[in-house]
């Protein structure tokens, strides 16, 4: 039975837990989701249990698409990360004042109404309240609920993949010099642009240190199974009270805008 579970997790799909705010507003701390293992082929990073040294080979390898949310298994960390693919092999990418410039063209960003994120004060990220960085955006709704109203933009990549991002302040990672993504690599960013250690950030700042080899990609995020707000533990007698309504079965595949004919 154990071997069957390990094989299923390594070859088909496995659960994943969101521990940080780097993919807000699309993924919240406490989300549980399913990661599929087959979309990009299989490699060392796909496996849930390792008996062989880390390798770079892939079986039936395929390249992610713009906008895919992927699991990263960096060689310099013990934890897996989750980020979005924003540039593919051969692309030229830069970031200018927080906007992606892809192959010389700014990636469209449009302002959207602020997104409301429940305060969920019971959640902790690295020992601190998860939403401390958003204190100035905290609001009390007429019904008494505490939320964070965060500035939101819609970003649309060349294939039409479109999704929301949060960008609420100026910071060093808002500007990244142009590079060319090498063959067999992708450039990854978090949707919460001011609070994501991703391909923009150097390794010594817990970032990914640039484009990520496809052999470090362990799978693709597919959908949310359920989400907990941190007020209860996984005790089956109490955890129902912590369920966030409306998040179960939410697809994590980006919407695609078809070009006008």
UniProtKB/TrEMBL annotation:
One of its GO terms (biological process) is signal peptide processing. It is found in: Membrane. Residues 2-225 form the Peptidase S26 domain. It is a single-pass type II membrane protein. GO terms for molecular function: serine-type endopeptidase activity; signal peptidase activity. The active site is at 22, 83. The keyword DNA repair does not apply. It comes from the Bacteria. PROSITE patterns: SPASE_I_2. It catalyses: Cleavage of hydrophobic, N-terminal signal or leader sequences from secreted and periplasmic proteins. Its EC number is 3.4.21.89. Its main location: membrane. GO terms for cellular component: membrane. Keywords: Hydrolase, Protease. SUPFAM superfamilies: LexA/Signal peptidase (SSF51306). Belongs to the peptidase S26 family. This is Signal peptidase I. It comes from Novosphingobium flavum.
